[in-house]
């Protein structure tokens, strides 16, 4: 007997419901991210909104926060007197006026300075000189920030609370930094358990169980982070070169004849497929929830590295039940390319552009948000 139209409609609804239930229970990167309280895809503001304001300063982090990013990314170091702070480079020359304030110590690593000394430095004026089209008088005199101050910023907007995406930078220079970080996050209430309902809060990822993600290039630091904070999601950063994935070619940049490093890095690739897979397998074996691979950028530049987000690489990583958060992408064509290749989140210097790309545009412009924050 042929089914009536009502029976057909009921059957169709049932099949749709079954399909949805199956999709929700299927293991996949989106479900994995959701379980960890991490948005999918995730917007990770690399050193803050560092295209539009001096990296790792209050201007960059407040801008990223108020634009609506999921995470504020930072590179963690420790001062001579034991204070945790954010700085990318090994020394202070590129992003501060250390050469004029401490000329005889200008090449010293940042950890040779006390926090009081670091706080005397101007971490904003270099940006105005380097990028006159994005310069703001109020950037001059911006300070290096402690982790405490970045936590304050992350908590400071009542309407949107991003999480923190913290890298232990050159961790071998800072024995015990993983433990220090745990103590600080614990003191500040950032390791408290939070329910999955909170993770879905409209206020942002900083309210949920994925509010902190820990990242490192160093195997030993990943192991220590796992020991100190087993419950916190971790990402093993990947690149091709010393201390990470072994390259196919051992020809150095100097020997290569390439005109710039981006062109050199773009040709770098893992020694073989198994070498790439070994690193992913290692990440998984140490409790990481994903990897943070490099990317080769269409227009090169000093953040363009080897292409480690080829579809087969992302597929292999997903097959192991891990996420892929790629660094560091700033242009729409590259956002599209890495999303097509299957990544689950992007580190970007241009938070406003990535939010637009994901159809989550900020309600105010970069200029307005900077102004609102006094810049
Ligand atoms: O942490 C991800 C990305 O930031 C790694 O590169 O050198 O900018 O810290 P880097
Ligand atoms: Ca970093």
From TrEMBL:
One annotated GO molecular function: phosphoric diester hydrolase activity
Pfam family, one: GDPD
Keyword vocabulary terms for this entry: Signal
Keyword Signal: yes
Secreted keyword on record: no
Residue span(s) of domain GP-PDE: 41-358
One of the GO biological process terms: lipid metabolic process
Matches recorded under InterPro entries: GP_PDE_dom (IPR030395), PLC-like_Pdiesterase_TIM-brl (IPR017946)
Signal sequence interval, chain numbering: 1-23
Protein name (record): Glycerophosphodiester phosphodiesterase
């Amino acid at each position: 007997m042929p089914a009536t139209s009502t029976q057909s409609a009921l059957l169709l609804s049932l099949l749709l419901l079954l399909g949805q239930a199956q999709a929700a229970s299927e293991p996949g990167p989106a479900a994995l991210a959701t379980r960890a309280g991490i948005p999918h895809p995730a917007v990770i503001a690399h050193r803050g909104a560092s295209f539009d304001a001096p990296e790792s300063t209050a201007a960059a982090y407040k801008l990223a926060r108020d634009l609506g990013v999921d995470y504020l990314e930072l590179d963690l170091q420790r001062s001579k007197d034991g204070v945790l702070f954010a700085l990318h480079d090994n020394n202070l020359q590129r992003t501060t006026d250390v050469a004029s304030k401490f000329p005889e110590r200008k090449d010293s690593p940042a950890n040779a300075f006390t926090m009081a000394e670091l706080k005397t430095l101007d971490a904003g004026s270099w940006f105005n000189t380097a990028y006159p089209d994005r310069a703001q008088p109020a950037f001059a005199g911006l300070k290096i920030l402690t982790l405490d101050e970045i936590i304050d910023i992350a908590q400071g907007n009542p309407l949107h609370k991003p999480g923190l995406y913290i890298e232990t930078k050159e961790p071998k220079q800072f024995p015990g930094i993983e433990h220090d970080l745990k103590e600080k996050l614990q003191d500040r209430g950032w390791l408290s358990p939070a329910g999955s309902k909170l993770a879905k809060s409209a206020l942002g990822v900083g309210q949920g169980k994925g509010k902190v993600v820990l990242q490192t290039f160093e195997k030993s630091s990943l192991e220590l982070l796992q020991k100190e904070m087993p419950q916190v999601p971790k990402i093993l950063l990947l690149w091709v070169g010393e201390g990470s994935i072994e390259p196919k070619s051992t020809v150095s940049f100097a020997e290569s004849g390439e005109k710039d490093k981006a062109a050199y890095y773009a040709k770098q690739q893992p020694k073989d497929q198994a070498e790439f897979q070994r690193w992913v397998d290692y990440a998984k074996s140490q409790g990481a929830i994903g990897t943070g691979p490099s990317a080769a950028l269409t227009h090169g530049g000093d953040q363009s590295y080897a292409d480690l987000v080829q579809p087969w690489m992302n597929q292999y990583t997903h097959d192991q039940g891990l996420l892929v958060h790629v660094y560091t992408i700033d242009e729409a064509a590259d956002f599209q390319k890495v999303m097509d290749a299957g990544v689950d989140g992007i580190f970007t210097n241009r938070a406003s552009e990535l939010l637009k790309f994901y159809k989550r545009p900020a309600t105010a412009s970069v200029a307005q948000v900077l102004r609102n924050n006094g810049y």
